[in-house]
Amino acid sequence: VLLGATIIDTIPAGLQFVAASDGGVFADGNVTWSLGDIAAAGSASVTVTVLVLDDAANELTNTADVSAPD
């Protein structure tokens, strides 16, 4: 069991935040989801919607970090 799971997704330059699913909160360039507990062999899925700006790079990479307290 993963207790108190959190996802933080940093929105890259060239993208504008539009919306986040499942209570995701946008602040200071990051979208944060507090997922709570995830059962063993369980999973969670979230979605972030962004607008690609005119000055965006030709290739964009977006990553997110998952964490839980010890």
Features:
70 residues; mainly beta; 4-stranded antiparallel sheet; two-stranded antiparallel sheet
Explain how this protein is built.
By secondary structure, this protein is mainly β. 0% of the residues lie in helices and 51% in strands. The chain is built from no helices and six strands. It has strands at 2-10, 15-20, 25-27, 30-38, 48-52, 64-67. The mean pLDDT is 94.
What is this entry, summarized?
By secondary structure, this protein is an all-beta fold.
Sequence-ordered SSE layout with sheet pairings:
Layout: E1 2-10, E2 15-20, E3 25-27, E4 30-38, E5 48-52, E6 64-67
Antiparallel strand pairs: 1-4, 1-6, 2-5, 3-4
Order of helices and strands: EEEEEE
Number of helices: 0
Please give the order of strands in the largest beta sheet.
3-4-1-6
Counting helices, strands and paired strands, the structural category is mainly beta
Q: How many beta-strand elements?
A: 6
